[in-house]
Design a protein that fits this description.
- The complex is a heterotrimer of chains A (118), B (489) and C (508).
- Chain A is 63% helix and 0% strand.
- By secondary structure, chain A is mainly alpha-helical.
- Chain A has one domain: Methane Monooxygenase Hydroxylase, Chain G, domain 1 (Up-down Bundle).
- The longest helix of chain A is centred in the last third of the chain and has 28 residues.
- Chain B is mostly helical and 489 residues long.
- Chain B has one domain.
- In chain B, 75% of the residues lie in helices and 1% in strands.
- Chain B has a two-stranded antiparallel ribbon.
- In chain B, a hairpin with a 4-residue loop joins strand 1 and strand 2.
- In chain C, helix 3 packs antiparallel against helix 11, helix 13 runs antiparallel to helix 14 and helix 14 runs antiparallel to helix 16.
- Classes of the chains: A mainly alpha (118), B mainly alpha (489), C mainly alpha (508).
- At the B-C interface, helix 16, helix 17, helix 18 and helix 20 of B face helix 5, helix 6 and helix 7 of C.
Chain lengths: 118, 489, 508
């Protein structure tokens, strides 16, 4: 069985060698002229207003979590839609259970005030 | 093909306890959301109790129709039923001992009761799982709920530390477990325990090296979950910081469930390479007992002391696993049942004493309990005697049975060292008895409220259970022995 | 279940009954405890007559653990001693114990339950259960109602006994593994028929595990250090129960279990054990002599007296065994009485230091008289009980090895020295002001408590044939069991039926 892993192993080796070689050559070939402007964050040429690691309100986390729950989880609907014919009523029942759980979560989040910005 | 995708009714029936628990938890969350924040939340606790009792009845009823469910992902056998009953009972006792504590801390929310149900449901999945992925899913359901419970008191720095530590180390451990599962799947091409065992036993089975690697990784994962040395370091901090009823819960329920899957995996699929892992478990067992007991000697905080003692007790159960026999498995089962009862009981007493903000959790704060609250003191005495291993308590009989199994498997040194360890342990449990009965009453016991009904139920039920297991162990023992035999060999 | 089976549960029933009484009604609790324990004593007398004295019921069938209890000549008198001393202990605590009265009496009855069980258990598992059950109440008796250093003493007592007995548990499981049963008569039968044999190494290790557990309880020098602490700190009733009953658990265990199960190892190790016993006799006596504390003096005298018992057992002959068992009873009666009398003194003067006394005989003549009789009994004066036991032990020891008897006999002489010297300093001489002031003579309750023991001292000293025949019969069996399947030549002559009669004649 280990022979089956050989291509993977070779790929690993190549992947490790490649950046070393590429960066090494670049280092040897390029001129070295350091300046402060080169270290700044580049955003369409506009000057940076503040540090990128500023603090922002914790409410964004809730938004992020809600996004994960209600947007990303609908991805699970996709495979069902593709195999709808083959799965038949079983698929419908399963997806109904899934949606029910999601709706309960929605009601709960709504009642708990997760959607209110204040 | 689509037609037989539908599970047979009996398969759904076999999963009934977990369905009840999950629906109960969901119901509580919806109810709380609908009733708003003004309502008293004890009613939600009652709902969770109803769900737990229904699940208990279901678990016993399901035992009448054993067998696999959902394409053999779950397996209901005596072993599963035994642990199902244990984890559900732990859930019931936890809820009973939580009411007062939560309202005192101003945290009597519906989420707590829902989380208990979800966690127990996860443990139910763990103990019935016959498949590595199901084991993992059950473990995650149980663990995530427990992480949140540990951090329930959001404004308490210690609880936050506890929750974060528990979460980080728990996830770390789960990663190891998952890595082990991946290796096992790679080696055998299946995740079903029965199928893996068949593959392992075949002459052209997977290489012992790969199997050993998987076993080692899973051992690390399980070792964390059961808080055995050398993976015990998280337990004292987490147990100390978490709210006391939660500590009671996580030192008993998730631990018993983790031991259940530990036993199931190691005694079935890794049994053929038993010679390899037995010495490792031997060392783990001895180290757990010794580190737990000797570290507990110097503690002054009751919760921390009980945390170390729970490490030591994990060591005793590992002795049973080390025996690698059906008797050993049965002994581990019996011991875990007794341990769950006595530990939940002891923590329930702490939950009663500790006062608002867990002010009184030092051993010295027990002073005068014997004269001020004789009934509570008597119950705690029973739990401590059981933890020491005094006859006529469940702890003694469990320990006896474990060391009997160990001697049967010729583990003479481990038995001798384990028994000496239990004599060391007597010292720190005695300290609590000394303070309780022989010291002048102190501040903590002065203004104790009358024993709340829920706590009383939890205390006396577990005390009665401990005595029952010690005096008339026959029925439960018989059940454990039979269930252990059903097991893969 | 026969009479015995029920009888052994009566102290537990009494314990539970007492727990139901309201804690404020102390008088009721005392009366109830006394009445219950007297009733138990009355019932125990029925054991002398009733046959069959055995109960054998399944308890935990999965492991073949049985509720198997039986009474024979070895245990009957120890059981009676226990049931007699429990009501006496309650009587002497009437005034002395003034707080947590309910718990005190409950623990006393629980202790009785455990001790009676140890003496009757015929199943090794059951034996261990009772053995440990007796430990817990004694721990509380010392720890709650004791003197200043009570916590230290209680914890020391518990840990010593616990640490020693866990290895016994391991050995019990090991024996079970080999024999397939915990049932003691069955194990003995298998040993006798050769169905079950232990290798020499096994025997030695198992013997030592059992022996150490018992020797701590006895206590045998050098494992005795918990005893003076426990005795001095315990309340009077605790000291009485400890000295009279709990110490006997150890010697009883050696005779009942160690010898018949592991005869070869027992005989091989008899030499150094006997030497330790003699060291204990002499050492206990010498240390007792220099004690300024009267309770500690009596405690060390116990170490000395129990040395005789061990010596008698490891003489391996009929006289030695009989003397050992008789000495167990004697020690229970006379040392128990001594502790009671010391307790009486303490209740009056609130001191245990000998130098705080002196001339007590003037204000309290009856107390002094009773104390003197007990002292003389403890020394071993003929016509009083200890004489018979010590004589038999010395006779047995002389048969085994004459030097043992010579050294052990010095213990008898030393005991006269320290006891009489203590008596003289306490009861004679100048009577200090305070003693005159505080000393009163015995009252009715105190008389009632001490009289049965005084009567027993005289009875056991003059009419040993009441007790000895049953003891000898049981010991003959044990002696026989220690001679079967023993590889090397046993010198003991075969026991003859007329031996018991001859001993009684000798003793008198």
């Amino acid at each position: 069985m280990p022979e089956g892993y050989l291509p993977l192993f070779l790929f690993l080796i190549v992947a490790m060698i490649f950046p070393v070689v590429a960066l090494g050559f670049a280092k040897l070939l390029r001129p070295s002229l350091p300046s402060g402007a080169k270290l700044e964050a580049y955003e369409c040429g506009i000057k940076a207003a503040s540090n990128a690691r500023g603090r922002y309100t914790v409410r964004f986390y809730i938004v992020a979590i809600l996004f994960v729950i209600f947007d990303v989880e609908t991805i699970f609907l996709f495979p069902w839609a593709v195999r709808n014919q083959a799965l038949g009523w079983f698929g419908v029942a399963e997806i109904a259970v899934f949606l029910l759980i999601l709706i309960v979560g929605y009601v709960w989040a709504y009642r708990k005030g997760a959607f209110e910005w204040v | 093909m689509p037609a037989n995708l539908f599970p047979a009714p009996v398969e759904i029936f076999r999963f009934l306890p977990e369905i009840i628990l999950a629906l109960g938890g969901t119901l509580i969350m919806v109810l709380e959301a609908l009733t708003g924040d003004r309502q008293p939340k004890n009613a939600l606790g009652h709902v969770s109790l109803a769900a737990l009792f229904a699940a208990l009845v279901a678990a016993v009823a399901v035992h009448g129709s054993p067998g696999p469910a959902f394409s053999s992902m779950l397996l209901v056998d005596g072993f599963a039923t035994f642990f199902r009953v244990v984890v559900i009972a732990v859930g019931i006792l936890t809820v009973f001992s939580s009411y007062r504590y939560l309202s005192r801390e101003g945290a009597n929310t519906g989420e707590y009761y829902a989380l208990v149900l979800f966690s127990v449901a996860g443990q139910g999945v763990m103990v019935t799982a016959n498949e590595l992925i199901m084991i993992f899913i059950g473990l995650e359901i149980s663990s995530i709920a427990t992480y949140v419970m540990a951090g329930l008191l959001r404004d308490d720095a210690r609880a936050n530390e506890s929750a974060l530590k528990y979460f980080l180390l728990g996830s770390f451990a789960t990663a190891f477990l998952l890595y082990g599962i991946a290796f096992l799947y790679g080696a055998t091409g299946t995740t079903n325990l029965t199928a893996i065992r068949e593959t392992v036993l075949r002459a052209d089975g997977p290489s012992p090296l790969l199997l050993g690697l998987a076993a080692a990784l899973m051992l690390v994962g399980f070792g964390f979950k059961i808080s055995s040395a050398p993976f015990q370091m998280w337990a004292p901090d987490v147990y100390q910081g978490a709210p006391t009823p939660v500590t009671a819960f996580m030192s008993a329920g998730p631990k018993a469930a983790a031991f259940a899957i530990f036993l199931r995996v190691f005694v079935t699929i890794f049994e053929p390479i038993g010679d390899r892992w037995e010495p490792i478990i031997w060392v783990f067992a001895l180290a757990s007992m010794t580190i737990g007991n000797f570290a507990a000697l110097t503690q002054s905080n009751v919760k921390r002391m009980l945390a170390y003692s729970s490490i030591a007790h994990a060591g005793y159960v590992l002795v049973a696993l080390c025996a690698r026999s059906d008797i050993g498995t049965a002994a581990a089962m019996f011991y875990l049942a007794a341990y769950a009862l006595m530990n939940v009981g002891a923590f329930a007493v702490v939950a009663y004493i500790c006062g608002k903000g867990e002010k009184y959790v030092g051993i010295d704060d027990l002073a005068g309990l014997g004269s001020r609250r004789p009934a509570v003191a008597a119950a705690l005495t029973i739990f401590l005697c059981s933890l020491i291993g005094v006859p006529l308590t469940g702890g003694f009989f469990g320990k006896f049975y474990i060391f009997k199994a160990a001697l049967e498997s010729k583990l003479i040194w481990l038995t001798v060292l384990g028994l000496l360890n239990s004599a060391v342990a007597a010292y720190y449990y005695l300290r609590m008895l000394v303070v309780m009965y022989m010291r002048e009453p102190g501040e903590a016991t002065e203004n104790l409220e009358p024993l709340p009904a829920g706590l009383r139920t939890a205390l006396f039920t577990s005390a009665a259970g401990v005595l029952l297991l010690g005096i008339f162990p026959s029925r439960i023992l018989e059940f454990a022995v039979q269930s252990a035999k059903l097991f893969g060999r | 279940m026969s009479f015995l089976g029920w009888f052994l549960l009566t102290p537990l029933a009494a314990f539970l009954l007492l727990l139901l009484l309201p804690r404020e009604q102390e008088k009721t609790i005392r009366v109830a405890a006394l009445a219950l324990s007297l009733a138990i004593f009355g019932l125990s007398l029925g054991l002398l007559a009733g046959e069959p004295r055995e109960t054998d019921l399944a308890w935990i069938p999965e492991l073949n653990i049985r509720y198997h209890v039986a009474v024979d000549g070895l245990s009957i008198w120890l059981i009676l001693l226990t049931t007699l001393l429990t009501p006496i202990s309650i009587l002497i605590s009437w005034k002395y114990i003034d707080r947590r009265v309910k718990e005190f009496h409950a623990f006393l009855l629980l202790l009785e339950f455990g001790v009676l069980g140890v003496f009757a258990a015929m199943d090794l598992f059951l034996f261990y259960v009772y053995w440990e059950v007796g430990l817990v109440p004694m721990y509380f008796l010392i720890g709650i109602w004791g003197h200043d250093r009570r916590i230290y003493a209680a914890v020391k007592f518990f840990l010593y006994t616990m640490a020693a007995s866990v290895l016994m548990l391991a050995s019990i499981i090991y024996v079970y593994q080999r024999a397939g049963t915990f049932d003691y008569p069955a194990i003995l039968a298998m040993l006798a028929s050769g169905k079950l044999t232990f290798t020499s190494l096994e025997q030695t290790l198992l013997f030592l595990a059992f022996f150490v557990a018992f020797a701590v309880k006895v206590p045998l020098f050098p494992l005795h250090t918990w005893l003076p602490d426990a005795h001095v700190e315990a309340p009077t009733a605790g000291s009485v129960m400890l000295a009279s009953v709990l110490l006997k658990l150890g010697t009883y265990g050696i005779l009942r279990f160690c010898l018949p199960m592991f005869p070869t190892a027992a005989r091989e190790n008899a030499g150094w054990i006997a030497v330790l016993a003699i060291v204990g006799i002499v050492y206990g006596a010498l240390v007792a002599m220099v004690q300024p504390n009267v309770k500690k003096l009596v405690a060390y005298s116990s170490v000395s007296h129990l040395g005789f018992v061990i010596l008698g057992i490891f003489s391996f002959n009929q006289q030695g065994f009989d003397g050992a068992v008789y000495q167990m009873l004697n020690h229970g009666v006379s040392t128990g009485a001594l502790f009671m009398l010391v307790g009486y003194l303490y209740e009056r003067r609130h001191s245990l230091e000998i130098q705080d006394y002196g001339g007590v005989s003037t204000p309290a003549p009856w107390l002094s008289t009773v104390f003197l009789i007990t002292t003389l009994a403890s020394i071993g004066l003929p016509t009083l009980n200890n004489f018979v036991g010590e004589f038999l032990v010395l006779q047995g020891a002389a048969q085994a090895d004459f030097r043992w008897a010579v050294f052990a006999a010095t213990g008898v002489i030393l005991s006269a020295c320290y006891m009489l010297w203590m008596y003289q300093r306490t009861f004679y001489g100048e009577t200090p002001e305070k003693v005159t002031h505080q000393m009163t003579d015995l009252n009715g309750r105190e008389w009632a408590a001490i009289l049965p023991l005084l009567a027993l001292m005289v009875w056991m000293g003059t009419a040993a044939e009441t007790f000895l025949p049953r003891i000898s019969a049981a010991n003959r069996l044990i002696l026989q069991q220690t001679t079967v399947n023993v590889p090397f030549n046993v010198q003991t002559p075969a026991p003859r039926p007329d031996v018991a009669a001859k001993e009684i004649a000798d003793a008198r």
